[in-house]
Specification:
two-stranded antiparallel sheet, 24% helix, binds iron/sulfur cluster, Alpha-Beta Plaits
């Protein structure tokens, strides 16, 4: 599955990291990093991350 994050919207609050730590992480500068393509087994976690994002910056595209 494929993930996109709109960095113009993202405010680095990290709710997505708590919901799907295998796909999203904060780097040393406290900025979001994520895997653009992850295994389908993470779909539920990534959907939870998208639902939890307060600015709806996460889109599942595939
Ligand atoms: S939850 Fe949304 S705003 Fe927060 S870090 Fe993740 S993508 Fe960015």
């Amino acid at each position: 599955m494929k993930i996109e994050v709109d960095y113009d919207l993202c405010e680095n609050h990290a709710q997505c990291v708590f919901a799907a730590p295998d796909a999203f992480r904060m780097n040393a500068s406290d900025e979001l990093e994520f895997d653009a393509e992850v295994d389908d087994s993470l779909r539920e976690d990534v959907q939870s991350a998208a639902d939890a994002c307060p600015v709806q910056a996460i889109r599942i595209t595939g």
